[in-house]
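Hi everyone, sorry if this is the wrong subforum. Our group has a chain we'd like a structural model of before ordering constructs, and none of us has done structure prediction before. Sequence below.
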Amino acid sequence: MPIVKANRFPMNIVSESISMTQVKLTITLLPDEVRPYLEKAAKHISEHVEVPGFRKGKATYEAVAGNVGEMRVLEEAIEPMVRITLVEAVKQENISSVGMPSVDVEKMVPGNEFVYTATLSLMPEVKKLAQYKKLSIEAKPTAASDKDVEKALKDLTRMQTKEARALAGHTVTDRDLAVIDLQMTKDLVPVEGGQGKGWRVYMNEDFYLSELKEGLVGMKEGDEKTIAVTFPKDHYQKHLAGQKVACAVRLSEVYILDTPAIDEVFAKSLGMESVQKLREQIASNIEEENKTEEGARQERAMLERLADKSAYSEIPDSMVESELDKMMNELEHNVTRQGATFEDYLGSIKKTADDLRKEMQGDALIRVKVGLVLRTIAKEEGVTVDEKELDEEIEKQVKFFDASDERQKQVQSPEYRDHLAYRLRNKKVVDLLRAAMVK
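Answer:
Right subforum, don't worry. Here is the predicted structure as tokens:
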């Protein structure tokens, strides 16, 4: 049996619970309540339409309505009237909703009352919050290991390595760069993705097909050879993992690599006074990166654990779908930022957008639950963001853009201010959780 509640002041609102996750509001505005919106709509129309006897933007409601029709003015007034009155109705009914409401106009006749309905998805509740003060996450060390430093040094020398084309007759050694044309087959059938020209094999570095690299030693430019290799058991292509493949190789070019020694001259070429100082700087940089990654790992672990161990009221499908939309937009943005198109990305992973949405559904639900947990903890712990904090943060961000930059206006908009308040509040909650849970 639906629960119906009527409220006559300051506007007529009938609230009907239509499910565990949705409520329907029927809102009636009397002619006197509609009139201010009609006058604003008429003024807006008069700024763009010639009304005889009046300058643009100065015509009266009656003159505009007589010129374009009362229904045209009413149609212009609907969007701001619904937007403003619905916000007020939601506050008046003390409804906590999520997502965009579904709005339908029920009665729209000039000079009469205006009636519309709005169906809203209710914000789900955390019925039982996990006891975060009794849960713990183990912190991992962030100091740079000697192995990490050596790898970074090797990467630096690789960047400084010079390549010189080998003389005719030079045979490949374990210190050269071999450029090959490759045709992979398994049981005489070409391996997908295993054909290509100009593959560069650095003989002094690890290569996932070690037998192929070993088979190149002693070859000369122009030589051809078939080398039997076995793919690693943990290879990402499951149908090739642990399988033997024939590699038909043609050695097209050989380069001798001139790699600098890790000495004082090398250190000074990078702006460091000694090798020791270079090692210390590399270790410091690695540690900072490790701290950033560890902080992100701790945050994920804390929030996912709390999300998993808390209990919730029914979560609307629309809320999960909205989160999925955000995740898909984030992924597409990251792909295009790297210079690719989203269609090419989908092709490379052999999936459709619908396939991805299905795969991400579980993660989207977790993100929704995390948001509910953060909201609940903020409320219980009294975590807030005051206007001064928002002003200071917005002032910092405004300085990054010129006054003519549209992004400066976006940063100063009320919508962005609300978004920033949400982010800053969540950051405070995460800091609170980190202090309580990370051991």
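For your construct planning: Confidence is low (pLDDT under 50) at residues 1-9. The first helix runs from residue 31 to 46.
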